[in-house]
Structure formats: structure tokens, C-alpha cells
């Protein structure tokens, strides 16, 4: 068990890089948006060795998510959603 997952965050972490906003929602999930507010997708930290970050986009009917790829680091996953 990862003890870090049990520690509540006082406020969401928000970073803007090259016109893309990365908003941390909890210890393992980030919402990726444009500065206009348009949601590009989400990145989830899987806690796995190899490709620990999964980028995903909401399905058009908004009833689920489609995996967009697994990546070695958070920056790569965010960059994939940006394009």
C-alpha cells in the first residue's frame, strides 16, 4: 500500500504549460484542459512499473472513457492529449 495515497491534499495542484492546464484532482488523477476550459482528457497514475501513466479521453456519449495510451511519465501523457 502506498501511504501517500492516504494523505489528503489541502488544495488541488494546478499548473499551466504551453497553453495546457494540468489540474490534479486527487493523488492519482489529473484533468487536462486548454486555458479556455475545453477538457482534453485525463491522466491517471497506475502505480505500475514500465508505463505508469494512462491518458484517456471521455467517450462522445460521456458514459465512459477510452484509453489513449500508456506513457513513461506525466509530461508525455499530457503532451499526447494536447495534439
From TrEMBL:
It comes from the Bacteria. This is Uncharacterized protein. It comes from Pseudoclavibacter endophyticus. The lineage of its organism: Bacteria, Bacillati, Actinomycetota, Actinomycetes, Micrococcales.
Amino acid at each position: 500500500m502506498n501511504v501517500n495515497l492516504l494523505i489528503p491534499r489541502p488544495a488541488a495542484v494546478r499548473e499551466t504549460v504551453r497553453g495546457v492546464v494540468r489540474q490534479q484532482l486527487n493523488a492519482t488523477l489529473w484533468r487536462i484542459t486548454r486555458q479556455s476550459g475545453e477538457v482534453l482528457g485525463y491522466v491517471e497514475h497506475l502505480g505500475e512499473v514500465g508505463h505508469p501513466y494512462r491518458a484517456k479521453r471521455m467517450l462522445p456519449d460521456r458514459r465512459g472513457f477510452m484509453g489513449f495510451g500508456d506513457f513513461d511519465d506525466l509530461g508525455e501523457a499530457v503532451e499526447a492529449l494536447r495534439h
